[in-house]
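Long-time lurker, finally posting.

We've been working with Alkylphosphonate utilization protein (Paenibacillus solani) and I want a structural starting point before designing mutants. I don't trust myself to interpret raw outputs, so I'm hoping someone here can both generate the structure tokens and explain anything notable. Sequence follows.
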Amino acid sequence: MSTLPNCPKCSSQYTYEDRNLLVCPECAHEWPAGSEAEHNEDARIIKDANGNVLADGDAVTVIKDLKVKGSSTVLKIGTKVKSIRLVDGDHDIDCKIDGFGAMKLKSEFVKKI
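Top reply, 14 upvotes:
Generated this for you. Predicted structure of Alkylphosphonate utilization protein:
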């Protein structure tokens, strides 16, 4: 019995080969056979305003005054944000800011400390 890798998208064990591709019957994801690069697709590289690579748990500083949606307050330039969490989407940083609470930020408006 051959050991095929699990699906990199949904981790299904029921993958099968179709010519030079591996196919997942549960989520219909296809990827090249023997490719380990697909496993790193989920680990998207997110960079700050200066081009530094961000990672979970990093501390960043806000580089521009940002209006807080649904509030009359402004997130001031220089506000420090500790222990960020990277997520998928338009606002790719999830964090908690003292005095504001849980918030999502765009990586283009922060720089790594």
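Before you design anything, note these points.
The chain has two domains: 1-38, 58-112.
Confidence is low (pLDDT under 50) at residues 37-42.
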